[in-house]
Design brief:
about 425 residues; alpha+beta; six-stranded mixed beta sheet; five-stranded mixed beta sheet; 14 strands
């Protein structure tokens, strides 16, 4: 969803932009113990010069001025949160941590626990870390999800790569798909409570844990009526079903509901910067999960295609009503948090965010190209688990992120193994 100021035209500093629906709901529900960050991790094949990277990223921010925003101070009776657009960064957005043997793990931890402030522009932090084994640069982008999403920040990073290396980082043209008339298969009632992810062995401390891994990109049989995204969806559903069985939830009859972000924005320089995805929920019943895999893939393909085609606001019509200025924003925040708590049992089982093939080469010239790229989305309870996938350099990069109150690193490793098994199984199905 776009608002005035989303389009990357030259915008004068000081302009104020009301929070869109997604930003406002996220702002209402912030929690100190579970920071609302998006983590982006890019491994390059070369080494970046600090001074040149600083210059390129600063120029990229100015090229996409909607990212240079900060939350405006307000009175208690204000009816809106507002962003103020700045001309320059309030704080240096790029840093270069010491190249220690555990530098990567420390940077990942910071990306999950140290959220950039909303009150200083931009609400993004970029860390350039030297890989302890190769010396090549690893970039960590930490994004405050109240303000921005991963694809928007990746667009800004692609601009920085082009400015740094002098090479075109434009995405290739996307082939137009043949029009299809979606037919929505029967869905479980939206009033049915979805299954939860069974608790494992919680870890000490607050916040999220993270595991990243590199997998073979799944193949599809020739003529298959489903996409790689559908294969990922089925693998996710069967992974959680197996996990729950292993943890004593064999009698659970509730359907799985998997939240799937959908992003219809262009990937070129006109891409609106902000939170631009809309969320759809893909339900799968216990009976459907027991179908032969080929039938389950076809059912999932039909369901995801139909759900993506439905026109609806990013967070649904109820969120639009909650963000109408019918009362001071502080009062609406209290009401929103109360409703979120009451609706927790109906929160989806998990979130699967498939970025797909990374649309930019992320070519920094003599600084190298991206050889691996991971995203991870917040894993706040009651959902407690998110899976994010992206593919680059012919590989699938999976990030599992979980709430420490639900799972541990060992649990994450088991979930990874289950996911890899079920994803591999989808390659063997006839269309």
């Amino acid at each position: 969803m776009t608002t005035p100021g989303d389009h990357p035209t030259r915008t004068p500093g000081g302009q104020r932009v009301p929070f869109p629906t997604v930003d406002e709901i996220a702002r209402h529900c912030l929690q100190d113990d579970e920071p609302e960050t998006v983590h982006i991790e890019v491994h390059l094949t070369g080494h970046l010069d600090p001074a040149r990277l600083n210059t390129a990223f600063d120029q990229a921010l100015r090229h996409h001025p909607r990212i240079l925003m900060r939350e405006t101070p307000r009175h208690w009776y204000a009816s809106r949160y507002t962003w103020e657009l700045a001309d320059t960064p309030d704080i240096p957005p790029v840093s270069f941590p010491e190249p220690t043997p555990d530098a990567l793990e420390r940077a990942r931890t910071r990306s999950l626990t140290q959220v950039p402030p909303l009150t200083a522009a931009p609400p993004v932090r970029l860390e350039s870390v030297a890989h302890p084994e190769t010396g090549n640069t690893v970039l960590f982008l930490t994004v405050h999800h109240t303000a921005l999403d991963g694809p928007a920040c990746l667009r800004v990073l692609a601009t920085a790569a082009e400015l740094y290396g002098g090479r075109d980082n434009s995405p290739p043209p996307v082939p137009s798909a043949a029009p299809r008339r979606p037919v929505l298969p029967g869905l479980p009632s939206s009033w049915t409570r979805p299954a939860r992810v069974a608790p494992g062995a919680p870890e000490p401390g607050n916040g999220n844990g993270l595991l990243v891994c590199d997998l073979a990109l799944p193949r599809r049989p020739k003529g298959a009526p489903y996409t790689v995204n559908d294969q990922l969806m089925v693998a996710t559903a069967r992974t959680i079903a197996d996990w729950n069985k292993e943890h004593g939830m064999r009698r659970a009859r509730r359907p799985l509901r998997i939240t799937m972000p959908v992003d219809d924005r262009p990937r070129d320089e006109t891409m609106p910067i902000g939170n631009g995805t809309r969320l759809v929920e893909v339900p799968l019943t216990v009976a459907e999960l027991k179908q032969p895999l080929s039938a389950l893939l076809r059912l999932t393909a039909a369901r995801t295609t139909a759900l993506k085609s439905l026109a609806r606001p990013p967070l649904g019509y109820r969120a639009v009503l909650l963000t109408k200025p019918w009362a001071p924003v502080s009062w609406r925040a209290t009401a929103t948090r109360a409703l979120r708590t009451a609706a927790a049992p109906w929160t989806s089982t998990t979130l699967l965010s498939n970025i797909g093939r990374v649309p930019y080469p992320l070519d920094f010239g003599d600084g190298g190209r991206a050889r691996a790229l991971w995203f991870s989305a917040p894993a706040r309870m009651p959902r407690g688990l998110t899976l994010t996938t992206a593919s680059t350099a012919g590989r699938l990069h999976l990030a599992l992120r979980w709430s420490r109150t639900l799972l541990s690193h060992g649990d994450g490793s088991r979930l990874r193994d289950l996911f890899e098994h079920h994803l591999h199984a989808t390659q063997e199905q006839a269309p």
